Amino acid sequence: MNSKARHPTASGATSDRPPRPRVQVALDVTSIEAATTLATAALDAGADQLEIGKPLVEFLGLKGVASVIERFPGVHFELDLMIMAGAARYVEAAARMGARGVTVTALVPWLTIEDAVARGRELGVRVCVDLFNVSEPVATARRAEGSGAGAVMIHVGVDQRRHDPQFSQLDELREAAAAVSIPVAYATYDVREAMAAVDAGASEIVQGAPLIEADDPRAALASFIDQVQGRAR
Questions:
Q1: Looking at 3-12, 32-41, 61-70, 152-161, which range is the least confident one?
Q2: Which CATH number is 56's domain given?
Q3: For 107, which DSSP code?
Q4: If you average pLDDT over residues 16-25, what whole number do you get?
Q5: Mean pLDDT throughout 90-98?
Q6: How far is CA 72 from CA 24, 42, 52, in A?
Q7: Displacement of CA 147 from its chain's centroid (Å)
Q8: Residue 177's domain spans which residues?
Q9: At what angle do helices 54-70 and 87-97 cross, to 10 degrees?
Q10: Which of 69, 66, 149, 136 is nearest to 104 (CA)?
Q11: Distances from the Cα of 118 to the Cαs of 103, 139, 165, in angstroms?
């Protein structure tokens, strides 16, 4: 890691401190009740936005997910659908339920990403291209930006992290953040990795487990957010 990286400021000068990232808390739970409790704790802790995590989508379905979003009017929700086909219908569903963004996996045929972006642009839904497990994340990030995607995400899968607790994609994050101008999100597992991701150029930090499983999620998330955003100017 290049700890001496310089970051541009609003005035045009440079700073050793990176810009303040947005913190997104993933509601990676499996019930409406658990999602509601966790969403309340995350917002109280200072989260900028919430993610309807893949487990919640799979266990509840979109109708169940909609009932969670309805309980928090005005909150920025990202819907982690990891779209693989039929992109337009899922973007439309996200818009109807009030979600501000959706994810589409970069492993699909590229025309699916283009369809998602086109429908998202019409409906005001941001499309984030998830670079999980792609062979060339930096090149794919550039292509996603060129296709009009609103953001890209880089992260390590839970199975990968379980088998190798030290595995990360911070190097890929650093290269992608330098290569594109759209937001680059990075999903983390602890505050140390999150601060390293901020230093590497992540503009959005996504945090779920293990903090959401803490005895006091609000306190755990508040400490996490304070430290991560304190890393930036």
A1: 3-12
A2: 3.20.20.70
A3: T
A4: 81
A5: 96
A6: 15, 12, 12
A7: 19
A8: 19-230
A9: 40
A10: 149
A11: 14, 21, 38
93 lies in some domain: yes
Question: What pLDDT is stored for residue 89 in this prediction?
Answer: 96
Instruction: Report which of 87, 82, 73 is spatially closest to residue 122, judged by C-alpha positions.
Output: 87
- Give CA separation, 95 vs 4, 125, 210, in Å: 41, 6, 30
Give the β-pairing of 151-154 and 7-8: unpaired
Beta-strand pair 151-154/184-188 = parallel
Chain length of the chain = 233
Residue with tokens 């739970």: 29
Assigned token pair, 42: 């995350």
- Nearest-CA neighbor of 128 among 68, 77, 200, 65? 77
φ and ψ at residue 105, rounded to 5 degrees: -75, 140
- Look at the chain and report how many structural domains it folds into: 1
- The token duo for 63 is 């109708």
* 4 within domain boundaries: no
The amino acid sitting at 140 is: T
- Contact, 42 vs 75, CB < 8 A? no
